[in-house]
Write a sequence for this structure.
């Protein structure tokens, strides 16, 4: 209330949908409700930003994408990790071809949470539940942005924690013509592994640590402050490559993370018709991959 004194609290979702002063609805409710709420918002002529996953099934996601086009409304997904410091750094390295042609790309998104989440909806078997729908969309989105759609998909989910009823670990493999992508996550990893391990025809890049924006927000730092989104120097990635006669070896300064780019682009897409960065069509492909893995 101190930061945003004009915020209005309502008692029902319908109060939001019937408020003509609201142009955009942001949905951050439990996964199983995303489709229902997004559909209602689009039918109420609202633009919509949905927390990942966009929907629990590809069929639901396809319906929302079609409905948004019919309503002439913007539909996007909160794939904020597209703007993480580490991924922005990886994009910069690969765009500059500092590793040559990539032959293997491995990403881990681990946590150590052996005790079940107190948020009951996160632990209840339901459409869109489990770690592959929770953390999977982040690293799947990044891989699809870098390499496009794979030729083949395979993988496995695991239930490992005591008392767990949902998958709490996964391995996903995406096969391309000359390279393989491996994406993994677990809630039972206490000792940190490399977050990124990328090998190419000219060298390798290894990166530990994770983007700091979430921790900075929790600590009271806000976007625009000098320290916000800046990663500790000890988490800088290591590169070793040969580009022609030039040897590149040492630390790579990490780009500054900026989730605000997502919101700025969304605003411009709504007000000026700017092309969306987070397109729901690409998110649909990631849901199809998750479904394929769950069916294996």
């Amino acid at each position: 209330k101190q930061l945003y004194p004009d915020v209005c609290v309502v008692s029902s979702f319908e109060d939001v949908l019937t408020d003509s002063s609201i142009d955009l609805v942001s949905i951050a409710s439990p996964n199983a409700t995303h489709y229902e709420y997004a559909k209602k918002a689009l039918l109420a002529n609202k633009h919509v930003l949905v927390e990942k996953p966009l929907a629990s099934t590809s069929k639901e996601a396809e319906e929302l994408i079609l409905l948004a086009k019919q309503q002439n409304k913007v539909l996007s997904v909160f794939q904020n990790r597209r703007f993480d410091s580490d991924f922005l750094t990886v994009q910069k390295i690969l765009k500059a071809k500092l590793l040559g042609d990539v032959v293997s790309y491995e990403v881990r998104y681990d946590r150590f949470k052996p005790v079940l989440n107190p948020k009951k909806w996160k632990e209840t078997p339901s459409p869109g539940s489990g770690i592959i729908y929770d953390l999977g969309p982040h690293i799947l989105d990044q891989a699809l942005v870098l390499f496009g759609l794979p030729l083949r998909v395979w993988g496995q989910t695991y239930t490992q924690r005591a008392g767990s009823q949902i998958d709490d670990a996964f391995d996903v493999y995406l096969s391309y013509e000359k390279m393989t992508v491996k994406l993994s996550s677990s809630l039972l990893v206490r000792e940190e592994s490399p977050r990124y391990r990328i090998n190419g025809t000219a060298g390798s890049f290894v990166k530990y640590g994770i983007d700091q924006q979430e921790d900075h927000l929790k600590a009271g730092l806000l976007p625009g402050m000098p320290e916000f989104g800046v990663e500790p120097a000890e988490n800088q990635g290591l590169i070793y490559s040969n580009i022609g006669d030039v040897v590149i070896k040492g630390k790579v300064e990490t780009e500054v993370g900026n989730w605000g780019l997502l919101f700025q682009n969304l605003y411009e897409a709504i007000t000026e018709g700017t092309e969306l960065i987070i397109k729901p069509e690409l998110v649909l492909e990631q849901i199809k991959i998750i479904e394929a893995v769950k069916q294996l």
Summary: The two ends are 48 Å apart (CA to CA).
